[in-house]
Structure formats: C-alpha cells, structure tokens
C-alpha cells in the first residue's frame, strides 16, 4: 500500500497552468501533486561562444529550489556562493532532455533558457521540471512562429519525464517524497512522444536491481508519460 | 497623469494570499499589482553564534529574484556565485524592518528566517517583501503560540512598506516599474502601525529634493501603509 | 550630555589634507575627529560596458576598512574572498552621492573611481568618505581642466554627508562610535551645496521615530554640512 | 567496423597495477586502453557531521582530471576556483557505486575517501574510476582487517562499471573517445558481482533509443564487467 | 648613476612614526622614500586550531595594497574575491620573518597579527613591511609586558629587510620602482640584528647571476639593515 | 648521518621518463627518489592579453598535488575552491625559472604551459617540477622545430633545481621529507647549465644562517644540478 493510497501505476494529479508569469516568452506552473515548479522560457538573440557563427541555436536550463520549498529550510545557493552538485546534475539533465526534441538548425542563432524553480517540493522535482519545460518551450516557440521570426517549427516531439521506483518490493509510478526517501531503487525516465527514450537513470539505494525490474520501471514510466503528454498538449493549446 | 491611470495617492491592488506554501511555518504570496513575492517564515530552534546563550531570538531575511521575474532575463545569483550588492542591501533592510516589531526576549532562543522570493517584478519588490514578511511572521508566531511553544506574543506592532517618488513633478504613491525608471526622486518608507517610522530611504535620481518634498512623500507613504495594514490583518485572520 | 562633551549641534573637528598620496589624480585624507579616511580619485579613459559609445562618463566608488581600523581586528575582506553587505551598501551610496553632482556628458567617455579606505574608525566612516570624495573628485577634475582634457566643468555642486541621531532622547549631530552604538535612531544625510537633499537614510534602532524627529535630524545635518562645505572649498583651494 | 578494430563486444585491454602509490592505504593505476586513472583510498578515523555518533562509516569519492589528460589542455579546476558540473556528477556517481557494496555498520565510524585522478583520457574515465576504486577500497579494507582494526569484512560484493553505446547503428562495448564523440546513444552501467545492477545511466545523443536497445547495451555491459571483475580479483590478490 | 642620484650603497630616507593608529596594540607608519606602509599589530587571546592547547603562541601577517597606491589603479582584491599569488607570497614571507625573532613558548597562547597595508608604493613594499612589522610587534609586546600579561620578553632579536639588485651592471641598495622595473637581478634579504640571515630571495630577471654577485648584494643588504635597525630602535623608544 | 644513509652531497636516484603521457606536446615523469611529478608541456597558439600583438611568446606553469600524494590526505584544491598560497608561490617560481632559459621573441606568439602534478611526495616537489619542466619544454620545442613551426631554437640553456639545507648541523643535498621537516635552514636553488644562478631562496627555520652557510648550500646545489643536467639531456635524447 502506498502512503498516498495510490495504485502502483497511478500518477499524482498533474496540473499545468500555462502563461504563469507575465514577462517570459513562455511559462507554466506545473504540479505533480504537492510538487510545484515554475518554469519560464526566455529567448535571447545570441548563442554561447562555442556556437557563434555556426547558424544554429541552443537550448539550456537552470534549476533552483526556493529555500523553504522543502520540509526544513535549506540554505540559499546564492548566499552559499555555489550551486550544489545535485543542482548542477539536475539542470544538465533538463537541458539535455529538451535539446533531444529541438532541431537546432531550425531554431537559428538564438538561445532559449528554461528556468525551473521549485516553489514546493514533494518528490519528483526534476521530472516535473522537464515536463513543464516542454510546455514553456512550446509556448515560446509558438510566439516566435506567430511573430514570423521562425518559419519552420524546430520542435520535433514532446518530451516528458517521470520517476519510478521499487517501494516495499513493488514497482510504483511517480514517487512522492515519502516513497522516494524509502525506495530501494529509483529511476528517472525521460521519454519522447514518438515512443523513444531520451534518458534512463536508475539507481539502487540499499538494494540493487536486475533487467526485469528495470523493464518494470520503464513500463510504468510509459504509463505516466502518456498522461503527461496529454496534459502538455492541453496546456499548450494544441 | 500616471502611466497606469492611477491617482497620485492611489496604491495598486494589494492581494495577500496566506499559507501560500505547504511546508513553511508561515507564508503568503503578496501582490502589489503585477509585482508578486512569495514570502515564507521558517522557524529554527537555534540562534546565530553571536546570540548563543543570551536568552533571546533573532529575525533575519533573505531576498532573491527569479531570473525571469523581470522584463529581460537576469543571471541567476547562485550560478554567478554571489549575491549582488542590491540583493544584500534589500535583505538587510527587510530583516531590520521586521526586527523593529519583534521583542527578541519574548521570542526566546530561536530564529525566524523570512525568505522573500520575487516571482514577478513590476517595481516595489522590496516594499512588497517587507509587507508580506509581516504576514508570514505573524502566521509563524501564531503557530508557536497555538502550540504553546510561546506564551507571550513577541510581535509588538505591524510593519509595512511602500515606495513613493516624484514622477513628472508630482509626488506619487507606490511606483510601478515605468514610474520607478523615470522618477526624479524615490523613497522607500517603512512604517509601523503605531504611527512611527522604522526606516526612510529617499534618493534623488537626477533631480534632488528638499524637506517639503520629503514630507509629501512621507504623507503618501502613510496613506499607502494604512491600506497595507488592513490587508495584512485580513490575511492573517485578525 | 554627549560622551565627548560636544553640544548637540556640534561637529567633531573636520580636517581635510588635500593631495595626501602621490600617484592619484586627486586625493585627500579626511578626518571627522578620530575617524580618518584616505580618499583617492583615479581617472581612467574608458567607461563600463553599459556606457560604451554613449558619449558620457561615469563616477563610481569603492570602500574598504583596514582590518585594524576598529577597536578589535576585523577580518580582511580580500582574505575572506568577498565584500560584506555593509561594504557594498556603503560604496553604492558613495557612488550615487557623487554622481548626483557630476554632469556625465560634460565628463566625457572616462571613468573616475573614488577609493575610500578607512584608516581609523570612530563612527561616521561613510559620511566622511562622501565628504572627502568630493574633494578628491574636485582635484582630479581640476587636473583634467588644467591639462585641457576638459573644457567645461562637469561638477555642478558640492556634496557632503553627515550622520545625525537621537542619543538619550536628544537629536545630535555627527555621531561618534559610542553614540552610534547607543543611538535610538540614526540617519545619514547627503546634502548638496545648492540646498537640496541627495539622500536620506534614517533607521530606527530599538525605538522608532516620526516626521518631527526626522526634520530635527535634517536640520542638524544642514548645520553640519555647511561646515563641511567650507572645509571642502578650503582643501580644494577654492 | 570500430575505429580501433575491436569486435562490438570486445573490451580494451584492462590493466590494474595495485599499490601504485606509496602513502595511500590502498591504491591502483587502472587502464582501459589509453585511459589511465590513479585511484587512492584514504582512511580517516572520523565521519562527516551528519553521521557522527551513529556507529557507522562512510565511503566517498572525489574525481579530477589533470589539465593535459585530454587532447587539448583543459583549465585546472583549482585555478578556476570551482569543480565543473561534470566533475561533481561523476564523483557523486563513484561514491554512490562504492557505497552500494559496503556495509557501513561493519565499517565502523571511519571514512574512506576514494580519489580518482585521470592521468590520461581516452573515453570511459568514470567507469575506469569506479572499477579501480573497488580495488583501492579492497586493499585499504584488507589493511584494516590485517591490522585487526576491523574483524568482519564490510565489503559485500565487487562493483565494476563500463560504458556501452550505439555506434554507427551497432551496440558496442567500452567506448573509446572517438566512439564516444560519435555515438548516437551511450550509457554507463554499474554492475555488481552478484548479478545485480547498481546504476544505469543511458542518454540519447541525437538519436533516441528503446527498451530493446537498452537491453542490448546492458547485455554488453555484463560481458565487460565480467572481465573487469576478474582483473579486480587478480589485482587485489584474491 | 641611479635615477634618484643616490650612491649605490645609499638607502632612501627611512622614517618610522610609531603609534600611527589609535586602536592597535602596536603600530607604525614606515617610509622608505616614497614607499609608505601602515603596520598594525593586533593581539588576540587565542591561537589557530593547529596550536590549541600546546602552550605556545603564533605570529602571522597579512598584506594588502590600496588600489591607488600604485602609478595606475589596480583592482581591489576584496572586490575581485581573492588575494593574488603575489600578495600571498609576500604575507607568508612577512609572517615567517617575524616568527624568526619570536619565542613562541614565551609568547604564550596568544596570536599577534601584523597587518601591513601599503598606502603608497615606490618599490620595496615587502621589505618596508617587514621592517615596520618589527616595530609594531615590539610596541605590542611592550604593552603586554607593561600590563604584566607577559613576564619575559619573547622577542629575541631585531629583524629588518631590504631589497638589493643589479642595476645597469652595478649592485645597488634599496631599489625604488624605476630601478626595480629595470634591474637585471634583484633580491630581498631578511637579516637579524645578531648578524644572521633569516631569508634570501634572489631572482634573475633577464640576466642571471653568480655567487660573487650574490655576496655583493648581501653586503649591501647588511649596510641597509644596519640603518634600519637603528631607526627601529629609535621608533620603539629603546 | 642522514636518515636515508646518503652522503651529505649525494642526490637521491633521479629518473626521468620522457613522453610519459600521450596527448601533451612534451612530457615526462620525473622522480627524485620517492618524489614523483608528472610534467606536461602544452602549446597554444595564443598569448595572454598583456602580450598580444607584441611578437613574443610566453611560458607559464601550474602546479598541483594529488590529494593523497602525501602521508595524510590533503584536501583537493578544486573542491576547496582556491589554490593555497604555497601552490601559487611554487607555480610562480616554476614559470619564472623556465622563462629564464627561453627567448620569448624566438618562441613567437604562442604560449607553452607546464603543468606539474605531484603524484607522490617525499620532499623536493618544486625542484623536481622545475627540473622535469625543462625536459617537457625541450621535447615540446623539439616538436615545433621538427614540424617547421619554429626555425630557431628559443631555449638558451638548461635549467634545473634542487633543495639543500642544514640538517643536524651539516649541509646536505636534496632533502627528503624527513630531513625537510627537521632542517634548521633550507634553500631552493635554480641553476642554469651555463653556470649562472636563476633563483636563490634560502629560509632559516628556527636557526638562522650566514654567508658561509649560504655558499655551502650553493656548492652542494651545483653538485646536484650537474647530475640533473645530465639526466635531462639523456631523457631529452640529446
């Protein structure tokens, strides 16, 4: 029995509010249950130095957590003077995931930065970030298309992510904080709407796992991402 | 004529949603028009080193702005590795303002940290932060009182803040971003519900000002803060 | 009775030694009683990136305190690897104050940096810094005029600053360290020789204050700044 | 055809020289072809703050690359003043992998730090690091057992890691730098000698992949790790 | 012919003003010609962690240069966020030199920090710092002796330093900035009043040197330090 | 009697393995007994900003020590976020020493960086670094000559370094760690194959020394460097 009473293959409520902030070219507030992340997409008409003059664009991500997004207050990374290894690992994953569905040549020499800021945390902040980032990116690109700054759509597919893990011996979908803290193995799966996998990260905690367990987790991830894909389309007005 | 069409002594809409986040002991989302700040109050049963063993508490504040809270994206302070001088100046002001209405001996050996994170900016983020911080502090202290961890209320008054400035020759209340960028003088006023002033910071930009202008701005600040005091009480359920 | 025996509206001895150091284009050692600050003005024929090509100049300031300027040794900011919030707040105030009396278009595409280093501290280091910075700036600009690198004087007025506060119930002028540590309210006032105010910063410490008290402090500040204006002119040879 | 002429399921030459340095309690130089990593295990009779007094130990890892381990010189992280996100991600993975095979209660209140320094890089530095770290840890623990400081062996299994990827449409084992730079998908697999998986990290680059491809990569990883397990035992004198 | 017109074995004017600042336990302003350094000695009744409980004291030094001590403004190390390699090298040398004349057991469990801040630079700032630091240390120790906090004098000798170099083929004493910039070899010599040498640092610049040249420089250094020893005694009232 | 049983004027075994790493333009592993340093020379076709467009090159050095190169593990400088004063002092010395034998005009507008990384430490890491750096530089320059990118040899002489000190009253050559920890005076001498001295750094530890002792140490240094010069030539294939 899961602490939340959910079935093993049941997602938490997914809510995606598009245009959640005023200034960004694209944005949304995404909730997976009590986990809430504000994602903004910012378009800049320049690319990082290593891409200058190559006729292609870039998509990157930054991630942060408000100090009291969590049960006990964490220290503010800006005050500590550096981003933790965990933060950097997560923002690298988000950026990679979104780049997997963006044709950089079609995007042209511009950069889109996806800022994912966790307002409230209850497990799955990185997967909610990736899932919300697609909506923010979609809205920002739609703006470029509407304004005629882009003529062809550089987005090649949807991307979504969800965590799955083995909780008290059972593979379960979309771990919340209590489950995450006690799972024997947990994984983050980044899937595309065309059926392919962009990233698998599955870590044993205490126990280890085998191929069968990995496939079980992946099967759950496909269930969860289907639901997220639908919510993304609705939020993006498609 | 103000760009927003407001009268010179007219505040923007003040909205304070209490308990805006789940984990913090006290919190609110405060809006002054399009400026939105999430404030959380976190209680920790320890004090900074300089106060240890002195039988008194501490109230402090931290301030941050999400990278895309503004018209164009600003760089993330955590990624740059340091807080700007502006950020530090603001969080020092917030902390000082809240300490002005808190009896540290009655609070006991605990620290309350007020995190003010700007979700969307349109001028006046520091004054909205101070005004919201009082609500978050009030709710956190109410929790301590309700749980019997405090027997006497350490909060001695309400504190609120508003900016005023001289815009196109006219003293106006609660500057929004357009006004703030073009004001010839602007000030931030931190006032107490008992009629006293906690802090005055009035800076000439381009033009300078005199005692009469300063009194004009203060008179407007009193009008604005009256309205904020009422909204605070309502949000705090008092 | 003030600890120093001064009358409430009495400044400490103001001494300004011009050309206190050999290499700087302008400099002075300024003393307000036992507070001593060395100020240098350095001219560079370049402006910060945000001003390039705009045909105007910039005036900025940096502030530091020698580790043993104070009663007990403070740690060296260079060794700690960052400037404190207090340092940044002060140097931003100094820069803003001096920019209030300088016509940036007349200055042309060059930057003048005012370095204010506290050799000995006894309260009022930021106000002495501002007051001395005007002399250093004046001397540096006079050099530019004498060399024909400037044809019109970009300095539009004198600027001086002084602290005032309420000490044991009485408004007093130019707080020294003992008074500053015990004042119930204290303010820093930056005034121009044309009668206008450039900046007011008045903070309640413990007690709070009202409009009347603020005006009392401002009245004292005008008395103090008159005396500083005279000393500045004499030091600058005018 | 692989650039190196290897068969798809062929590892590069694995060489593990135990006791490669004089001072460390355990160490080895491990080579996967031209990739060479020096790993040392350092025992300290103290644990990190979060574990103090809990009667258990800790295993952690740090990773670095000499500036000219690579084709072109990279800047020295110590000189830049921070470790890159990549470095932090890798050292977190190494630590997690080794903790998966160590019983912290049996280890007792001591910490073993595994320093993995890349002397020469040609792809697979993180997997060589993990594989070599097990040998260094094994030797250090053997020393504790020999000296009677430990009576029961805290190491519960062997751990090894290898990268696999899809190169020109074919799943291949143990990518070298040229393959790694051109692979359409690549993964790092951390396996235990008891048949379980400790960690799977598989990333699409350009192309994405499906369950079948993931299983193919895992099958290759099992082949590679079998060979590494044998080399580890030999190096550790078992 | 030296640019200053001095004879090869002629020092610049040495001026040491004792008690140059109010708060420090010992201090002086030392000038070697146009090079001026303010040195303060601060006594703290604690020692660094590595000495705790060992019954002995510590003498350490920090060095800084005001941004405009030099011909062109240098950036402020506190603003840059780190001390340069040059600064660290110099402050390590100063500390080592003063420790050479202090019996740490007689000093007892306290630390004396010598802050050497260059007010104006014209070559020889590190040697002036060492020479002035002895005076500040002497005055601080005299205070401890006078107050009965020390009963035996821990200072075992005088220490002084001077630079010498080969300028246009001739060995010269006490290089000023112009000579220093053009010397073919230059050295810093730290000598004791008992005739011994504490430190020799002689570097070839462009040309290299031999034993004879090194002895020539050392001979000049003895001449210079004799003069400094006399000035130190006079400044310290001995 | 020296702990190692060596005669006072006896070096430890010098072993220099050229081409110790694959990617660098020049490299060697140098051992002075148990001290082992990996040195690489990296050629870059650009110079630091202060040399741009001046038609000359630059030689610089960086130094690091692996965390467990020493008896007890030291913290990793990249993790601490800064290089220690000792590290900076050493790398400045290495760079200066190599520049003493390189004609920057003949080198042309390119930079050669010498990375010296201590794999195992037993005293004398900086002198082994300098001695090995010459070999790495020689091999890198030979490559430039062989490829026709240089037509004249910019290397004007050999440079080598060795430490000498007074151990139990006797001047001894090439201090190992035990001797270094107990020496009453120790020096590092950087000598050229043409008989000249590039750098002398001799520090008293506890005891001080005089001219005669300095000459004794220098005489030993000449003996040691002769042996190193021969080993360098052999390693460089000359």
From TrEMBL, chains A, B, C, D, E, F:
Q: Does the keyword Methyltransferase apply?
A: no
Give the source's domain of life in one word. Bacteria
Give the reactions, separated by semicolons, that this protein catalyses.
Answer: tRNA(n+1) + phosphate = tRNA(n) + a ribonucleoside 5'-diphosphate
Subunit field text: Homohexameric ring arranged as a trimer of dimers.
> Could you say which protein family the record assigns here?
Belongs to the RNase PH family.
The UniProt entry, under Gene3D superfamilies, shows: GHMP Kinase, N-terminal domain
Question: What is the native source organism of this protein?
Answer: Sphingomonas chungangi
Its function, per the record, reads: Phosphorolytic 3'-5' exoribonuclease that plays an important role in tRNA 3'-end maturation. Removes nucleotide residues following the 3'-CCA terminus of tRNAs; can also add nucleotides to the ends of RNA molecules by using nucleoside diphosphates as substrates, but this may not be physiologically important. Probably plays a role in initiation of 16S rRNA degradation (leading to ribosome degradation) during starvation.
Checking InterPro entries in the record gives: ExoRNase_PH_dom1, ExoRNase_PH_dom2, ExoRNase_PH_dom2_sf, PNPase/RNase_PH_dom_sf, Ribosomal_Su5_D2-typ_SF, RNase_PH, RNase_PH_bac-type, RNase_PH_CS
The segment(s) forming the Exoribonuclease phosphorolytic domain are 10-140, 158-222
UniProt name for this protein: Ribonuclease PH
MF terms in GO:
3'-5'-RNA exonuclease activity; tRNA binding; tRNA nucleotidyltransferase activity
